[in-house]
Amino acid sequence: MAARVVQDTQHSWPDLGTAYTVQVSHTYRGTPVKELVVFSENNSGRFPMELGVSYVLFLHKAGANLEADYCGNSGQVANKQKVLATLAAMARAR
Known about the structure:
The chain is mostly beta strands. 14% of the residues lie in helices and 41% in strands.
């Protein structure tokens, strides 16, 4: 999915992580939604995001949360043009 961060909220226990509210601009797989919350746990696998910046997000379920795959192709749109081109090509081939 491609999405822009519109809000970040520290967890009620800040050491646990940050919840980012993102506005979804494009869904490549799954049920399209307009907005969702992505949690970034405060550990070595965290996926920090900046307000107002757009991201390509490959999400997975972690308990009750959605989290971005930091080791994969998730990242700022500005740095992921090749990933976006591959996703667009895959969508056209369907």
